[in-house]
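User: Some background: our group keeps a shared notebook of sequences we're curious about, and every so often someone picks one and asks for a predicted structure to add to the entry. Today it's my turn. The entry only has the sequence so far, pasted here. Could you supply the structure so I can complete it?
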Amino acid sequence: MNQVKGKVALVTGAASGVGRADALLLAAQGARVVLGDVNEEAGQALAREIGDAALFVRHDIASEEDWRKAMAATQDRFGRLDVLVNNAAVCPAGSIEDTSLDTWRRVMRVNADGYFLGCKFGVQAMKGNPAGGSIVVMSSVAALGGLPMMCAYSGAKGAVTALARSVAVHCKRNGYRIRCNSIHPDGIWTPMTQALLPNLDPVALGIGTDPMARMCQPEDVANLVLFLASDASRFINGAELRIDNAQLISGL
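Assistant: Of course. Here's the predicted structure to add to the notebook entry:
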């Protein structure tokens, strides 16, 4: 318990799915959490559920002005930032032949530009902290192995994986004590996945019980986010951590 007691964390895409699981676990383990999302109704509801340790901010991660407002609100309410979880994303299907330039640009705006801005503002906010901080970048196995039916998504996740390495080295060389790591799940049983694959039966998938399962629960990802946010991971920096039940290396 209290693995992140006293820390202040900002989680993007916090209103549902993995972001919601991240925020709930971080708060349960002693953090104060800033919940960023464009879904105001669900975000406010989560803030009420968590209580005084939570603050909701409406946050389009591709907007530089929204990042300024989110950081200012974090500072005003909690006094500092220790953890940034870059989690919000969009995930339209489409191969290289099917994906339009407009779709590519829309995905890059959120999944790449938004994470760039997050890292930029996160480093600025945390570099003066004596204890430093932790930036967690939500990538995907699509960045490592490629998903043919998610061309734009794969491209954006590849970009933010490289970005995380760059940020990790930059902070180390400048003595900021800010760590930056990327997480690479395969399938996660979230509303976004369910919308893409509406005919999947979660019981048949064997989530959490079948040793062959590819899909995990949001809480499986949140457990790794908690570890990376905590001081227990203080020497883990620039790492690419898969949550895929060996899918990438098994080829099944």
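Suggested note for the entry: Strands lie at 8-12, 32-37, 54-58, 83-86, 133-138, 178-185, 187-188, 215-216, 240-243. The CA atoms of residues 74 and 80 lie 7 Å apart.
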